[in-house]
Amino acid sequence: MTRNQVTQAVDRVTDSDWFERAARAGYVVTGLLHLLIAYIIAQLAFGDSGNADQSGALAVFAKEPGGRVALWIAVVAFVALALWRLAEAIVGGKANEQRSDDDGLSGWFDRGKALSLCVVYFAFAWSAATFALGSGKSSGRQNAGMSARLMEHTGGRVALVVVGLVIIAVGGYFVYKGVTRNFLDDLRTGGGKLVTTTGVIGYAAKGLVLAGAGILVIVAAVRSDPSKAAGVDAAVKTLAGLPAGQILLILAALGLAAYGIYCFVMARWSRM
Q1: Which residues, listed in sequence order, are joined to residue 270 by a DSSP beta bridge?
Q2: Does the pTM exceed 0.85?
Q3: Tens digits of per-residue pLDDT, 12-24?
């Protein structure tokens, strides 16, 4: 099958209204998860316990009446959004918009970003499925366990440092996208004050949390302390030990809640 035939096949699939709606539902679920993570962080600020990451939010879903049904709906939504991102990676642009055949650096960057998001949403779907099946585990503990195994070898520690640098870069990109308001380019609407404010705060907060998680991965590799490489949960809980830790946790909760709200904006007005 030629490249043109593949592109035409992708165009036919993404012309489906139900496929687009299912993919947009992925943003809704992402928003709900971030609001739950923000709620858990707020609880941590006032002395409660919990896992301030995706697994903690999914666990909250699983415990509620009808929670497993909701989780299976989340799996479908995440898979749809992952497949939509895969379509964008194949065609090299927004699936439902007129595209220019850009094979330059910018075009390949867009393809790489879409493919990376495809992997992320498939990972979200897998996590949601494990909790729906009753076998979900703390992602922080899994990350720490994997890091401990990698630390048994020099090459593993180097790999962890590289992973940490990549996470920091991703976090930096989120902050950049927020403060420059580039996220507005992803919308079909110009955005109002509320949309812009939630986007700026949300992207910046998520970026800072990711960057903090990346820094801790590097610290874990250097100090041979796998507990530091527990992802977002470790980054958030590190804030609690800092001066004015409670205030920092509340700010982190508000920031991630803003990102969750912005995900709902994406569900409605995202360019697809």
Answers
A1: 187
A2: yes
A3: 788 888 999 999 9
Structure tokens at 178: 């927020």
Separation of alpha carbons 255 and 175, rounded Å: 12
Angle at which helices 67-91 and 3-14 cross, to 10°: 140
Could you write out the DSSP letters of every residue in 67-116? HHHHHHHHHHHHHHHHHHHHHHHHHTS-TTS------SHHHHHHHHHHHH
Do 92 and 115 touch, CB atoms closer than 8 A? no
**24 Ramachandran zone, left/alpha/beta (phi>0; psi -120 to 50):** alpha
Report which of 178, 176, 150 is spatially closest to residue 163, judged by C-alpha positions: 150
Q: Structural domain of residue 226, as residue ranges?
A: 3-269
Q: Tokens 């679920």 — which residue? A: 29
End-to-end CA distance of the chain: 25
For the four alpha carbons of 227, 230, 235 and 239, in that order, the dihedral sign comes to negative
Nearest to 74 by CA among 135, 125, 15: 125
226 burial level (CB within 10 Å; 0-12, 13-18, 19+): buried
Closest CA to 248 of 235, 263, 261: 235
At residue 133, the 3 state secondary structure works out as coil
Of the candidates 251, 266, 260, 267, the one whose C-alpha atom is nearest the C-alpha of residue 32 is 260
Residue with tokens 């509320």: 194
Which tokens is 7 given?
């592109």
Residue 39: CB partners within 8 Å, gap ≥ 6? 253, 257
pLDDT tens per residue, range 80-108: 999 999 998 888 777 677 655 556 677 78
Q: Give the count of domains, the chain.
A: 1
